[in-house]
């Protein structure tokens, strides 16, 4: 699990590099990829005995041109606790789909994410429901659904407000699961490989001007003379004098 968390930065850089290389090899007006990265401070209600975490969340979105006004994107994000509290410290890495809309500077979105988690139980471990076993940590699949709002403050930056509702499988509760609620506030940076190209809500390219064609005027051939027209040349005049 530790190896997976260490691979998060490498994954982000790889995705950004591949997308940038592809974007540079296509015409500007048809650039399909929109890339953004975000970092946030996260407070998590862990769902186990009132546990709370103070964490850092980082992620990235790779999106396409809008479809009927909806902006789809693939999202990856990871959360790591800097303060695990007194009960359990939750960390995870998630992948999934993000769907967004634009209303001026407001950018609401919803996402559905799936991934893996690891929970470290604090203060020497946490007992199972029978009290016969003491768990120091556990890992499982995690399912997350949530949404938020990006508030645009400039061409590249936005403020992020994000909330998630997550399901964890655990061996320390009678039901075998817990539900956590991470709340995040952070900053979004939008990579703009071609600042001249933006899409309207209906998916049309906004502000793009096609290259002008050459202003030279084609030469028109002369019109053919009619069949009964007079000859183009007049009889040559004679320079000799007429007889008296």
Number of domains: 1
Q: How far apart are the termini?
A: 127 Å
Structural Rg? 34 Å
Q: What strand line-up does the widest sheet have? A: 1-2-3-4-5-8-9-10
What fraction, in percent, of the residue positions are helical? under 10%
CATH topology name: Porin
Mean pLDDT: 80
- Give a count of the beta strands, DSSP E runs of length 2 or more: 12
Query: What is the helix/strand order?
Result: HHEEEEEEEEEEEE
Largest sheet: 8 strands, antiparallel, barrel
- What's the oligomerization state? single chain
The top level CATH class name: Mainly Beta
Shape: elongated
Total helix count?
Answer: 2
Q: Which runs of at least 5 residues are low in confidence (pLDDT < 50)?
A: 1-30, 235-244
Q: What is the strand content?
A: over 45%
Query: Structural class of the secondary elements?
Result: mainly beta
What's the CATH architecture name?
A: Beta Barrel
Give your account of this protein's structure.
- This protein is mainly β and 244 residues long.
- It has a single domain, classed as Porin (Beta Barrel), CATH 2.40.160.
- Helix content is 9%, strand content 48%.
- It contains 2 helices and 12 strands.
- The protein has an 8-stranded antiparallel β-barrel with strand order 1-2-3-4-5-8-9-10. The protein has a two-stranded antiparallel sheet with strand order 6-7.
- A hairpin with a 5-residue loop joins strand 4 and strand 5.
- The longest helix is centred in the N-terminal third of the chain and has 16 residues.
- The chain is elongated, with a radius of gyration of 34 Å.
- The N terminus and C terminus are likely disordered.
């Amino acid at each position: 699990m530790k190896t997976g968390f260490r691979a998060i930065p490498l994954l982000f850089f790889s995705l950004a590099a591949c997308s940038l290389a592809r974007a540079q090899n296509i015409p500007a007006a048809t650039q399909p990829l929109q890339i953004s990265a975000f970092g946030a401070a996260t407070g998590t209600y862990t769902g186990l005995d009132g546990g709370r975490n103070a964490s850092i969340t980082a992620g990235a979105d790779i999106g396409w041109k809008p479809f009927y006004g909806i902006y789809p994107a693939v999202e990856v994000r990871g959360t790591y606790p800097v303060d695990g509290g007194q009960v359990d410290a939750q960390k995870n890495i998630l992948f999934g789909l993000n769907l967004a809309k634009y209303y001026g500077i407001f950018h609401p979105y919803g996402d559905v994410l799936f991934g893996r988690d690891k929970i470290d139980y604090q203060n020497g471990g946490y007992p199972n429901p029978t009290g016969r076993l003491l768990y120091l940590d556990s890992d499982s699949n995690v399912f997350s659904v949530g949404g938020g709002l990006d508030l645009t403050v400039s061409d590249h930056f936005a403020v992020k407000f994000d909330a998630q509702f997550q399901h964890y499988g655990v061996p320390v509760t009678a039901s075998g699961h817990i539900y956590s609620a991470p709340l995040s506030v952070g900053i979004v940076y939008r990579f703009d490989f071609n600042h001249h190209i933006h899409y309207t809500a209906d998916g049309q390219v906004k502000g793009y001007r096609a290259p002008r064609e050459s202003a030279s005027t084609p030469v028109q051939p002369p019109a053919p003379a009619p069949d009964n027209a007079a000859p183009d040349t007049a009889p040559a005049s004679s320079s000799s004098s007429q007889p008296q």
